[in-house]
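Progress report, Aim 2. The chain analyzed during this reporting quarter is listed below.
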Amino acid sequence: MDSTPHPSSPSAFDLVSSALGRYFPSGGAAAAASPADAQDPTVRHRVPDDPTAGRQEQILGAVNLDRDLIVTRCNLDAPVFAGLDAVVGRPFVDLLPPGDVPTVTRRLRQVVETGEAHVARIQRLRRGDGSELVVSMSILPAAAPAEGLTVSLIAMARRLHLYAAETAIGTSLDIGETAQSLAESLLAWGDVAAVDLDFAVWTGEGVTGQAQGRIRLRRAALVPDRAWPEGYVTPGDDLPSDASRMLAQAVLRDDAPQTIVIPDREAVERVLGSPRLVRALVPGDRSAAVACIPLVLDSVPPVVLGVAEVWRRADSPFRDSELLDLQELVARTAHHVDLARQHQREHTQVLALQRRLLPRTGGDTIEIASVYHPATPDSAGVGGDWVNSFPLPDGRTALVVGDVVGHGLGAAATMGQLSMEARALLSAGLAPDEVLEHLDKTVTLLDDAESGLTAGYSALGSTCCIALYDPVSHHVTLSSAGHLPPVLVSPDGHAGPLAVRPHPGLGAEFAVREPLDVLTFRAPPGSLLALYTDGLVEDPAVPIDEGIGRLADAVSTVHPWDTLQQAARHVVSALAPVRQRDDVTLLLARMIGYRKGDTATWRLPARDDAPARARAQVSALLRQWRTRDGTQDKVLLLVSELVTNAVNFATGPITVRLIRAGHGFLCEVGDTGNGRPRLRRGGLLDDGGRGLHIVHRLTTRWGVRWTDTGKVVWAEVAR
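Predicted structure tokens for the chain:
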């Protein structure tokens, strides 16, 4: 059957126009406000709805266009369309805000060319006075043989607009974006909309009440976006303190949050009472009436997070139904604002912990630089990536990088626990592989935890890499648990990843757990070591090896006299993906080491004359270094006690090493014994253990670290 419309068939324009009078007859004048009601402008002032207003308010209109999108016929006689200058012979796009012209023009031409209707587009139309009307716009092709199209306009019914607004608000956990979405939705009820939030909401603090003296409102959002007069409060600005108190007291009238309406310019000026406040809060001469709606948390007692303000012309008073819709929308938004506040608090805590773990500085023997970029500015992107570097008491430097599974407070708590545990174990003298074995057990235990910050969170599969740099031997000892291999750049510029054996990561099942390897390599002065997390090199479009290769190429361009922190930022900006899906972390370490003349090492047999020989060698070196007599005596006594202890309790050769550092002297005595020296409280008649008490008194700190062949007892003497 031929479905082509008959030439006499009514056009879409005629069908829509006929519906205007058939289903939505005009009428229903608004009731005038009583002069007595305006005496108290803080009383909720509004125009009551006519009982039949729902049937009599006309909201449907139609505009006919030719193929050039010029208006040929128009039926926008309903009062709701007042101010829309749809003049025959003018382009339809004159009714649109400038920013919407390209998109709507493209849609109109698509309907002309394809004949397929485009329905129910939420669109703003611009009135002659600059205000806007929100409509549901459908674009319909004209019935054959006519050409062109018909645009039907339905002034946005409030319930439909509420639904559209609720789907737009709360899609982000950013406080500013949530407030902006609310303000944009409120603009359908007025000419200007603003959202002011309690300052504690911005910081993530708990808002428990409106205590006098603590009230501080900050403008979070303001629409439309245009140039405002000097002195007017715009987003990011704090409201004047007296304005904050006034708004807070108004919406908490009689200790209960409520909406207030100030009906005209005279009442607004009388309430504000100050030209300065009028300039700060009133958006312009045309916007003279305002509705203030509190953002209230549904609690006992109710908590006000802020105030939403809708400004409109005084000749268009607020109806009861409009105020109810405003209250409903703002009330639902308050929940999203509170979620954003909680998210901001969590974000602040996580980021503070993460920043605290970042290396502060290097030292005389190593230069450190680090960069950390969360995946997104909000806390949804703050994950468990962390880097740390710190000097060990024995003169070495520890470099640690880790990637904890997941995001948020649980990941941050685990990250902090693993970082602090690694630091404590490394400071106690454990080797990198031994530290990772302990971290592996910790992750397994945390996975079983049923309470605390990590409840319901699993860190299984987290990764970690630990490197220890010895500035005397210029060797690096490294071990990795599932982490990507570090990149080493030699002084001659050659760069490449280290050959680290893969490992399943921390907390792996016992059946698949592999022994941790230890890689020791030489890093002469001028070498550059890059430790990083996978967010820097992972790209779904390229293999991971290619990403690591790009990192090696980028790090190899760092010149020896380049500022390391600036070089690290340059590497990250060159490699980090435009759309980050994971945190990006980079740690660069430039090896410096001790100068050759600042260290000396002697190897002695474990005989009774070893202490005397050690004192003679050290004494000659201290005189060469022109050490003060008092310091020289302390160092000689210290060396004598440590060597004597090694002779008495160990076997094999003894190694003595003396280092001149900026803060003092570091003395190390290594042997092949496996006993751990311990400082004990002895009796008056005890002969043993006095040597360690002497060492304890002479030094600023001392300790033990373990090696493959035995142990090293180290001690530090201040100059």
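The longest strand covers residues 397-407. Residues 1-8, 19-56 have pLDDT under 50 and may be disordered. These observations will guide the mutagenesis work planned for the next reporting period.
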